[in-house]
Structure formats: C-alpha cells, structure tokens
Amino acid sequence: MFDLIIRNANLPDGRRGIDIGIAGEKIAAVEAGLPGEAREVIDATNRLISPSFVDPHFHMDATLSLGLPRMNVSGTLLEGIALWGELRPLLTREALVERALAYCDLAVGQGLLHIRTHVDTSDPRLVTVEAMLEVKERVAPYIDLQLVAFPQDGYYRASEGVESLERALDMGVDIVGGIPHFERTMQEGAMSVEALCRIAADRGLPVDMHCDETDDPMSRHIETLAAETVRFGLKGRVAGSHLTSMHSMDNYYVSKLIPLMAEAEINVIPNPLINIMLQGRHDTYPKRRGMTRVRELMAAGLNVSFGHDCVMDPWYSMGSGDMLEVGHMAIHVAQMSGLEDKKKIFDALTVNSARALGLENYGLDVGCHADLVILQAEDVLEALRMKPTRLAVLRRGKVIARTVPKITELQIEGRPERIDAGYNPTARR
Q1: Domain 2-51+363-420, classified CATH 3.30.470.30, yes or no
Q2: What are the domain boundaries of the chain?
Q3: Nearest Cα to 152, choosing from 123, 125, 126?
Q4: How far is CA 358 from CA 152, 164, 233, in A?
Q5: Are 374 and 51 in contact (CB under 8 A)?
Q6: Peptide linkage before 405 cis (omega within 30 of 0)
Q7: What whole-number distance in Å separates Cα of residue 390 and Cα of residue 52?
C-alpha cells in the first residue's frame, strides 16, 4: 500500500512507462507495472517526470526590485552594482521578505524547490540577512533555501566588509561568499580569497564565490580559489560562480587552469542568461558573449551546474524562475546542440546542481525525497525545447502546485481540432 502512485511516467534517463510508488515523503518503488494500491493515483500519461529543479545561484534579496529607485539605463554590470548601492539604504526587512516570498511562489509553480541565494552583507545594518533568514524559515516546508554571505562591495573594499561578513555568519548564514575581482587590486582580490577560505575552513562551511565575472582575461582569481581550496582541505565544498573571464583567456593558460580546478574539485556555476546579457559590453565587433567554457569544463570531469542569477532586478529586467529557460539559453550559447549535449544540460539543472548544493536524498531512486515535477513533455529534449507547463509539483510526496495543460484549439478545416503544447512533430512521423 502506497500513499501515492504516479503511473505511466517517462524518466530523464530515457525509460518510459514507469510507475513511481511513494510512501510518506520518500520514493519507495520505481518500476514498470508496479503492483499495489495507493490512496491517490496520478496518471502521467507518458509525460516526463523529473526531480525538482535546483537553482544554485540566485540573488533573492534583489529580486523583483526592478525600477527601484530607477532603471539600469546602460544595462551593464557596473551600473547595476551602483544602482543596488542606491537602493540598499532604502531597503526594509518587510519589503525584502514580501518580494522574496512572491518569488518563491513563482518558483514553486515552476517546480523549483531548491535555491542557493547570495545575500549582500555590505550594509552593516544587515537588514538583507535578517530578511533572508526569515524567508528561509518561512519557506522551509516547500523550498530548500541556502544563504551565502556575499560582500557585494568587496570583502576589503567595503568599509565594514570584514566585520559584516563575520556577523552574517554568526547570525546563521550557511555559506562563505566573495567577489575578489571587485576588490581594489588584484592583490587584495587574492588576499580576500585566502581569508574567506580560511574562515570557511575554521567554521566548517562551504564556499561559493562570484569569481572573475569580467571580460578581463587577466582576472585569474579562480586559479587562487583552486589553490586555496586544496590548501585548506575544502575539496568538493567550493563553487566558483560565473567564471566569465575564461571565455577571454588564451587556450594555453586554460589548459593549465582546468586541471587545477579539477584537482580542487571545484563546482562550476555559470549563469547563461545574465552572463551573455552583461558581458562584452565594451566590445564593438566581434562581440564576446561571456559564458565560461562549459563544454571543456564538463569534459574535464568538473561538476557544472547553471544558475538563474537574477529576476527583474537592477542587473536583469527579465527572468521567470524557469530553470528550463536557463538551460534553453545554455544550449545556444555553449553551442551544445547534440542529443547527448542536451542531456548534460538537463543534468546541469537538476542532479549537478543538487551535487553543488550538497543536497541529500535527491533524485528519482528508491529512498530519495519525493520532490518531483511532471512536465507537459515526453522527454528531456522536448522539455528543453518547449519549456513546458509543469502539470504537477510534488514536495515530500504531496502535490503543492498544479497547472492545467496548455492546449490549442484549431479551427482549420481538415486539421486536428486540438494540439497539445507538448507536441513533438518528429516523434510522430
């Protein structure tokens, strides 16, 4: 006897017509023709079922603040940082919580149930930290929210940056962050990497740094981060986010850098939507697009996952909370259009991201948490192409969101009356 059985599901690994039995909060069985009964049965009708989506890089304290106190006219990273500096003194805990909860509602509808967010610690009031700690507690029943202490204005560059970051960690923030390329000098950037890795080692915390988010090929703090990761015994617990400078580095240097990153077991987190929007702004033509070397990093065995980064904030006026939109863009920018490439992209939105966040009991195996999404698509390739409706979202075995299927009614003589939005013409030839 199960609490819930999902029948006739297709899995990301290509298996079709599979039943998933759920007992309590866990997956209890995964097999075709599953015997037994359940209090509730959902017929997936040969739709794709996926573990819930994971966003390993986001800024929830800034989300949905677009236009406050003004718009980013140039659309550049630096104006976005300056604009956030203008908004920061006006922030209140209540407004931060309200916007973050509104975004979490959106995320649930998209099947996004695990988020790592960077929380600005540069304002010594730490109102952002207070607000995100409250949000983390309030959304805990339906979203796993991890918090990174992020010194947006620079660990050393901000007047009280060192003290504020330590206070944020004392308040309960989970992860040590940094932004070495925004320090005053390359030397201070390297010093910040060392200091922050030391703090993480002393406190037993992971590290997630905005690293080399620039077009400058001489911004090489990822090299320092890899070295300090090994030095402080942090292998597998460190993420380098963005790494956009790698798209401008010469191949010889990268041939040395990637093995160093692999030795340190760095988790790599590009952000396709934002990277291609903000980078290359000083170029005429040819214009660089800014995303790091995804294919080469994956080939070297590094764990690569993709973040959404921003939604309607000073840096990015678009965004939807849909991780399939992120993956869709990654396919184009990384030029990973092959069938196996696309499967790797889907993994970067799910299992790879879960690994970067250290999530336990994640996936579709027996014993995993029943955090699942049923999509209006037949397989991974169709999901990435169509960015389909999430028909049902389950958290710990209970449905917490439903969306009606998208159906188009045609009024054309001699053609079908109804077309399912998940329609794949090539599958029906």
Answers
A1: no
A2: 2-51+363-420, 53-357
A3: 123
A4: 24, 26, 16
A5: no
A6: no
A7: 11
Using one digit for the tens of pLDDT, what is the confidence trace for 66-97? 999 999 999 898 899 999 999 999 999 999 99
Based on the residue annotation, tell me whether 188 is a catalytic residue of this protein. no
Q: Cβ(407)–Cβ(419) under 8 Å?
A: yes
Give the right CATH number for 53-357 from 3.30.930.10, 3.40.800.20, 2.30.42.10, 3.20.20.140. 3.20.20.140
Q: Which helix (H) or strand (E) holds 44?
A: strand 38-51
> Which of helix, strand or coil describes residue 23?
strand
Buried b (16+ CB within 10 A) or exposed e, 160-174: ebbebbebbbeeebb
Give the whole-angstrom CA distance, residue 338 versus residue 331: 9
Residue-averaged pLDDT of the chain: 96
Residue 426 pLDDT grade (very low, low, confident, very high; cuts 50, 70, 90): low
Residue 334 to residue 280: CA distance in whole angstroms: 16
**Beta strand pairing call for 144-150 and 175-178:** parallel
Q: Which member of 40, 79, 94, 213 is catalytic?
A: 213
